[in-house]
């Protein structure tokens, strides 16, 4: 089950509620003439009838309606948001949605925690509102400042249904129209999440919005370094191979074909310029370490160990963070190995690793249940302890 109220609680903590409450009271006072929208054929008779009934119901009656007609409630809210653009009415609908979520929260476990099916309807309703909101550039900044990108990635990583996938990726696509947002999104590792969904996608509209999102990240980013980082992340996540497979299919949608062509060209150019350090850096930033050739290349470590210190030890901090939070045995084994290689090839590396807390993290994994993790942690600890590498190398 997904607890929608957790999202509401996070919003309450981030926004000055006295200001919001005053605005909400003002919005509630401006009642909507739903009949006029019905006569103008902007909403259906079913939605008009339901929203009028729901609006007039007393608080306890609304609880009954929500428990018996929750799906219809979510469907009506979504339809109204999709077909009405008048700002005052949209504000009114959003306030109704917010009030409804608060009622569910206050109702306790029986109605506050809903089934996965019903919960999905509510999340889709909220996502529909977000899709509309993020069309406005100013709202994009407000959303990311409220840590909204983490909400999006959390939903995507939660194996949600294809409709919610589409809505969340649509939001990323909207954010990526702004160069500053492209810069900001770098820290959220969105490419691995999108590439995983692309690999499993069976819905054309999900494929289309992922490709459009990837294109925006490459096309709208103002800084060359940012574009290169996104391109390398896509290459690391095997997007190039997926694009080649998609290119073999015939799509009626020209947008898909154009985006595939654009991405193939840009990623192909990046592959030509790809150095072993770029490859390593991209893999590390993806958080998906595997035994790719660079990890065990003596030449790579001899030439690049010192580069892990760049940008205030950015890559080393990622490495130690993986040792702390990852539960993937392969990631832990490779990370421990890399810490050992870094200190072996960089004379002052031992002190740096200790300052970052990496030594203790590696030592903690010496008792890991996985044999490969234990083995690589033990080797790394030996390298952290030994000062004369010629002795170690010749034993």
Quick rundown:
This protein has 395 residues and is mainly alpha-helical. The chain has helices at residues 4-14, 17-29, 34-39, 45-56, 59-68, 70-83, 87-107, 109-112, 116-133, 137-145, 148-156, 162-175, 179-185, 190-200, 204-219, 224-236, 239-247, 254-272, 276-286, 298-304, 310-325, 329-345, 349-355, 358-364, 371-385, 389-393.
Helices and strands: which structural class? mainly alpha
How many individual helices? Answer: 26
Distance between the termini: 56 Å
Per CATH, the architecture of the largest domain is Alpha Horseshoe
Question: Care to count the β-strands?
Answer: 0
* Rg value: 26 Å
**Which spans of ≥5 residues are poorly predicted at pLDDT below 50?**
1-17, 109-114
The shape is: elongated
SSE order = HHHHHHHHHHHHHHHHHHHHHHHHHH
Q: What is the helical fraction, as a range of percent?
A: over 70%
Largest pleated sheet: none
Briefly note the CATH topology name of the largest domain: Leucine-rich Repeat Variant
Domain count? 3
Which superfamily, in CATH terms, is the homologous superfamily of the largest domain? Leucine-rich Repeat Variant
| Mean pLDDT across every amino acid position | 86
Strand content: under 5%
Q: Which CATH class of the largest domain applies here?
A: Mainly Alpha
